[in-house]
Amino acid sequence: MKRENASSQTEKAGQDNHDRQKTENKPKSHKPTVRNILVLGKTGVGKTSLLNYLYGFDLPTGAGLPKTGKGLHENVITRNGTAYHIFDTWGIEADSMPEWRKEVLALVRKRNTSPHISDWFHAVYYCFSANTARIEEAEIEEILVPLLQSGCKVIVALTNAEDGFRKQEKLEGMKEYLVEELTKRLHRDPQLEIIPVVSIAGETLAGDSISRFGRTESLEAAQYNLADDIEKRLPAIYKMNVMNKLGAWKERSLLLLANGKISFVLNNNSAKQLIDLINYDLLNTFGAIDADGDKMEAEANEYLLTAGNKKPLERRWRPEFSRITYVKGYEYSKGLSVGLALDVASSLLRSAKSIRENLSRRVIKTHAAIIESMQKK
After folding, report:
1. Residues 239 and 343 in one domain
2. What is the Cα 94 distance to its own chain's centre?
3. Which residues pair with 32 in a beta bridge?
4. Burial level of 58, CB count in 10 A (0-12/13-18/19+)?
5. Cβ neighbours of 236 (radius 10 Å)
6. Using CA atoms, how far apart are residues 201 and 47, in angstroms rounded to an integer?
7. What are phi and psi of 125, to 5 degrees?
8. Are residues 204 and 275 located together in one domain of the fold?
């Protein structure tokens, strides 16, 4: 009976080990890559057809993406391990411009300054139809200019670009007009990708075939824009994160000095304890900054890889700063002075106040020196 129990225990241990190995070897679920896509344009210019063509969606056309009224609406579609977050507006008409500016521009600025690349808009398309070749001045003034001024890269898709009566002339005219008007308003080259696209294959009324084109150029433009955004935005966002975290450290330290306990007789020890707490918090702040930078770099390289860019970020992309502190050893008093012996209460007040003011100046000096070192470099 004992041998049977031992055998049973051995078999059970072996089975447990086997199950554990199966669990360890089981592929871990990978969070899908996020692609945030903003598509804009007047009603009927082919926004949904463009998305279907570029990304292989099967969204209903005509009525457009599902909406619940005016505003900016998000629709999530997961394909081949990528979660596409499609942001679509109601058709941009003259009477909706104020609402559009308030909602969409605020969202673009908020997302594109996030320390998480997964929050950014990875592709922004603005559609004009070559059938009508109509570009309203308000669309340039109220939409494209503010977007470009905010640092957002816009791909202009000239939809319905199939051959037709004077179609090539219309396309060239639209390109020239857009570049000329944007250059005049921005006072610089708008560096705008303007791509003719045919999203739906078919036949003309004369029986000529219509082939789709523009997909490769549009996707490559989006990939290039994302890689360029990562290279240009990331250092500035990292720098802002450093400043925010150091600012929070300064505020915490000043609050601690304003309320921290300072004993009368052992005020040197009290000061040392406050100094240790402040510097320990500063070291933790540096560590948090480094951790944030590592996360940003890992995410950036993942997006660069999936965008077709095999080259990782340069190792020196992070703005450097001096990791210093002026909150160091402190000596306030050595033994009781005549003044302390004569007036203990008054001496206590003077001692505590002097220590707090002195250390507060050192905290402020440390913060200013670190920020200044980052600005110089």
Report:
1. yes
2. 31
3. none
4. exposed
5. 12
6. 16
7. -115, 135
8. no
The answer to whether the predicted template modeling score (pTM) of the entire model surpasses 0.70 is: yes
- 282 assigned to some structural domain: yes
Total structural domains within the chain: 2
> What are the DSSP calls for 69-107, one per residue?
SSSEEEEEEEETTEEEEEEEES---GGGHHHHIIIIIHH
Is residue 40 a contact partner of residue 96, using CB atoms and an 8 Å limit?
no
Structure tokens at 227: 């890689």
Who contacts 36 (Cβ-Cβ below 8 Å, separation ≥6)?
Answer: 85, 87, 111, 118, 119, 120, 121, 122, 123
Compute the distance between CA of residue 154 and CA of residue 151 in angstroms, rounded to an integer: 9
**50-108 confidence digits (pLDDT tens):** 999 999 999 887 644 444 455 678 889 998 889 999 998 766 666 666 677 778 888 89
The amino acid that residue 240 corresponds to is M
188: phi then psi, degrees, rounded to nearest 5: -165, 170
Alpha helices in the chain (DSSP H): 2-25, 47-55, 97-100, 106-112, 137-139, 145-149, 167-186, 215-259, 267-306, 338-342, 344-376
The answer for residues whose C-beta is within 8 angstroms of residue 328's C-beta and 6 or more apart is 275, 362
State how far the Cα of 77 lies from the Cα of 80, in Å rounded to an integer: 10
Q: Which domain holds residue 297?
A: 234-376
Q: Are 96 and 143 in contact (CB under 8 A)?
A: no
Cα–Cα dist 281/259, whole Å: 16
State pLDDT tens for residues 173-189. Answer: 999 999 999 999 999 99
Extract the tokens encoding 219: 């996707």
Distance CA 342, CA 16 (A): 77
Find out whether 103 and 71 touch, Cβ atoms under 8 Å.
yes
Assess if residue 149 is contained within a domain: yes
**Taking every pair of C-alpha atoms in the chain, what is the biggest distance, in angstroms?**
110
